[in-house]
Amino acid sequence: MIQLFQTQKTQLQEVKNLADGVWINIVDPSYEERSWIEENSPLVAEYLSDSLDLDELSRVEKEDDYLLVVIRLPHFRGVEHDSPFTTIPLLIILTEQNIYTICKEENVILQEFIRERIKGFSTAKKNKFLLQLMFKTAGKYLLHLRNINKIVERLEDELESSLRNREIFELLKYEKALIYYMTALQANGAMMERLRRLHIFSAFEEDEDLLEEVMIENQQAIQMTNITTRVLGQMMEAYSSVINNNMNNVMKTLTFVTICLAIPTLFASLYGMNVPLPYAQTTAAFWVLVSVSVVLVSVVFFLFKRMRWF
After folding, report:
1. CATH entry, 2-245, from 3.90.550.10, 3.30.460.20, 3.40.50.1360, 3.30.2010.30
2. Which of 174, 196, 202, 257 has its Cβ near the most Cβ atoms within 10 Å?
3. Which DSSP string do the residues of the chain spell out, in sequence order?
4. Cα 150–chain centre separation
5. Dihedral, CA of residue 69, residue 72, residue 73 and residue 74, to nearest 10
């Protein structure tokens, strides 16, 4: 998919023809669309395969006539996946005439720009667009991390009485997501540091301040990811302890029930033998055996209770 947008009279409009000041948004282009890219922008065609590689790391390339930035975006795939939260690379190329964004999958961050939910966005302000995109990316990481924290808290409430494996598999899913996020955030932070050293945004003090805010947001996301990872690791250990304790309680209960059942079973087995037995002909023998069994079971119950077995 290829979409062309241009800010006209403070409103973002979708256009059909390529011109100066146009934002070209490319998402997983088809064969025909790749031909269009090669024909209209050979520079973008050179980096097309890199942008569609899901393992591409964040980086910056500065040349005389263009600036290339790769940033990893947070991406929610759905709770049915092994890792509901992951990251995908977004390639941004700023030329003297246009803005190019290339991504393997559609993402909500660019959709917010398209739906004009970003204050002060204009396709004519290319450097500011890049800063706004990075700021929105850092904010989206923080939002996803808050959602992960809520999910982890919900799973924590289920730990106390759980004997199943479902919760531990759920925790593993989000632990994997946090690893992806930490790797991406650290790479994004290194990319932002390189942008600051290149002094690309030094022309306007407002842009420099925005870059500083972006770096602070990204650092905050890194710290939040670190904290969540540590909490999740402790929860995994606590989960194992809870599972063991619950299993021990179940085994204690089964042991007590087994011992109690063994007492009347012993008397029934003895008086079930086909040999002459004392008082076997007495009419009260059955009730005597039942009474003795009840007394012995009560004694066993008292002893177990005194030992705080349950």
Report:
1. 3.30.460.20
2. 174
3. -EEEEEEETTEEEEESS--TT-EEEEES--HHHHHHHHHH-HHHHHTHHHHT-TTPPPEEEE-SSEEEEEEEEEEE--TTSSSSEEEEEEEEEEESS-EEEEESS--HHHHHHHTT-STT--TT-HHHHHHHHHHHHHHHHHHHHHHHHHHHHHHHHTTTT--SSHHHHHHHHHHHHHHHHHHHHHHHHHHHHHHHHHTTTTT-HHHHHHHHHHHHHHHHHHHHHHHHHHHHHHHHHHHHHHHHHHHHHHHHHHHHHHHHHHHHHHHHHHTTSSS--TTTT-TTHHHHHHHHHHHHHHHHHHHHHHTT--
4. 11
5. -170
What's the rounded Cα separation, in Å, for the pair 150 and 191?
A: 30
- Give the C-alpha separation, 115 to 199, whole Å: 31
Domain boundaries, the chain: 2-245, 251-306
| Model-wide pTM > 0.70 | yes
Torsion over CA: 226, 68, 60, 207 (sign): negative
The fold of the 251-306 domain, in CATH, is Methane Monooxygenase Hydroxylase; Chain G, domain 1 (1.20.58)
Q: What is the pLDDT of residues 127-185, one digit of tens each?
A: 888 888 888 888 888 898 888 888 877 777 766 555 566 767 777 788 888 888 898 89
